[in-house]
Design brief:
The structure is a homodimer of 204-residue chains. With 204 residues, chain A is mainly α. The first copy, chain A, has helices at residues 12-27, 34-41, 45-51, 55-79, 84-100, 106-112, 119-145, 155-176, 179-191. The longest helix of chain A is centred in the middle third of the chain and has 27 residues, at 119-145. Chain A is elongated. At the A-B interface, helix 6, helix 7, helix 8 and helix 9 of A face helix 6, helix 7, helix 8 and helix 9 of B. The structure holds a DNA duplex (18 and 18 nucleotides).
DNA sequence: GTCTATAACGAGATAGAC
DNA sequence: GTCTATCTCGTTATAGAC
C-alpha cells in the first residue's frame, strides 16, 4: 500500500489519472498515448505500467473515478434541499463547467469511441449513463409531485432527452469554443420541460 | 481523368471514400487506418496514396462529400413542398437512418475528434454545422410565418438546440444499440418547439 | 517505484518497378 | 493504377537492474 500523500500533493496514480482524464476528454481514447502522460508527468512510460497494467485498465480506472465523482456531485445537489428546477439547473451547470475547461464529458467522448473500447470500458460507460438517467428520473418525478414541473412525456423519456441534449450541446459547442452556444441549448432544454422558470439559466 | 465507372460499380476513389466513411462514423478518425481500408478494398496501402495523398486529404474529401450529399438531402426535402413540421421530421429522419446503420453522424464523430484534426478538416466540420443551422433557421422561420410553429426562443437558438439535440441523441443511443431511445429523444425535441403534431414521430 | 533497454507491432508515407 | 519493398516513427508492453 502506498502511504497517504502529503497535503496539497497527489500520489502518482492520481496524477496519472488527472493527466489521462484531461487528455481523453479533449482528444479521445485513441488520441492520447502513454508517452503523452509520461512526458507530462516527468516519468518514463515503463513506470506507468507499474500503476496501471495497460491502457484498458487505465481506461477503466478513469471511468470509475469519474462516475464516483459525478455521483458525489449529484448527492451534493440533493443535499442542498432545493427544488427540482434548481436541481436540473445545477445538473446542467456541471456540464457547463466541463465545457469551460475545454473538455467533453468523459463518457460522452467514450461514447464516440465506443466501438473501439475493450468490453469492461464499454460496460462502465453504459452504467454511467444509466446512473445519470436514474438520478434525473428521480428529480423529474419529485418535480411533478410538487407541481413544480409539468412534463410533456414520461420521466424516463424526459431524462433521456436531457442527458443526450446536454451531451450533444457539449459535443457541438466545444469545437466552436462557444460556451454561450451551450448555455442557449441548455436553456431551451430546461424550458422544454414545461417548467416555470424558463428564463433563469444565463451564460456566466 | 478516370473514365466513367460502369453502372452499379464505383471507381476506386469512391470505394475508398465509402469504406473510410463507414470506418470513421463507427470508430472515429483516430480509430481507423489505411491498412483497414486497403484490406477491405483488396488493394495495398501504397495504392491508397495514389488516390489520396495522406490521411488529412482523405479526411477532407470525406467531409466534403458528406456535406454535399447532406445538402442534397435537404434540397430534396425542400422540393417536397411540405410544411415546416414535416420538414423537421424528415430532417430527424436522416439522423435516424444513420443510427440504424450503426453509425454516428460523420461530423458529430469528427466534433469529438476535433482537437486532433488538421486545420482544413476542422474548418470543414464547422462549416457543416453552420450550413445545417442555416437550413434549420429557414425552416423554423417559415413555420413561424405560416403559424405552424410557435417557437419559444429565437429561430437561431432553436436551430442550435435541434442540431445539438439530434447529435447528442445519436451519440448516446448508439452505444445502447437503441433506435427507440433516439426516436424518443427526437420526438421530445420536436415537441418542445411548441409544434402542433407532437405525437407524429414514431419508431419504424 | 522508477529506471534503461528492447521487443514487437502498426502507423503513415515514399521510391521505383510494372 | 497498382504493386513490392522499405523507411521512419510512434505505440503498447515486458525484462530486469537499481
Amino acid at each position: 500500500m502506498a502511504r497517504r500523500p502529503e497535503r496539497g500533493t497527489a500520489d502518482t496514480a492520481s496524477r496519472i489519472l488527472d493527466i489521462s482524464e484531461r487528455l481523453v476528454q479533449s482528444r479521445g481514447f485513441n488520441g492520447f498515448s502513454y508517452a503523452d502522460v509520461a512526458s507530462e508527468l516527468g516519468i518514463t512510460k515503463a513506470s506507468l505500467h507499474y500503476h496501471f497494467a495497460g491502457k484498458a485498465e487505465l481506461g477503466e480506472a478513469l471511468i470509475n473515478r469519474y462516475a464516483t465523482r459525478f455521483a458525489q456531485a449529484l448527492r451534493a445537489i440533493d443535499e442542498r434541499g432545493v427544488d427540482a428546477q434548481a436541481r436540473l439547473e445545477a445538473y446542467a451547470g456541471i456540464y457547463a463547467d466541463v465545457l469551460r475547461d475545454g473538455r467533453m464529458c468523459l463518457c460522452g467522448m467514450l461514447a464516440a469511441d465506443y466501438e473501439t473500447l475493450p468490453e469492461p470500458m464499454r460496460d462502465a460507460v453504459l452504467r454511467f449513463f444509466d446512473e445519470n438517467e436514474a438520478w434525473l428520473i428521480g428529480v423529474l418525478e419529485q418535480g411533478e409531485d410538487e407541481g413544480a414541473l409539468h412534463l410533456h412525456g414520461s420521466a424516463n423519456e424526459v431524462a433521456q432527452a436531457i442527458l443526450s441534449g446536454l451531451e450533444g450541446a457539449l459535443l457541438i459547442a466545444r469545437p466552436f469554443g462557444d460556451v454561450v452556444r451551450f448555455q442557449a441549448a441548455a436553456n431551451r432544454l430546461m424550458a422544454s420541460l414545461g417548467a416555470r422558470r424558463d428564463e433563469r439559466l444565463t451564460a456566466r
